[in-house]
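An instance follows:
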Amino acid sequence: MKVMIIYGRYGLFKELSTCSDIELSILDHSDILQKYLEENIGNRLYPYVTSSKVDLKAIAQIRRAVKEVQPDVLHAFNSKSLTNSLLATTFMKNAPKIVSFRGIETTLHPPDY
């Protein structure tokens, strides 16, 4: 299974990288990717920076990585990466399943229940 994660957590990456049946791709800040590279975490590493919920540069970065890797699952860990992921994969053939958690980065509000 091909899994792509944007702005995930170190512990998750470390555990997933030990699974032989998972090909892990990570999009994160360059300095953090350097740490993963040194520790041999992740099969593919992509620099990713976003400044807003709708960031054309970030959307292009995600779209390029998704086209190259063709992941089965794309996991976005915060609201900015979720929005940009949804926009990047819109109208793609064989778009990955997008997964995200609400309530980790921000609190839940009544309309979100």
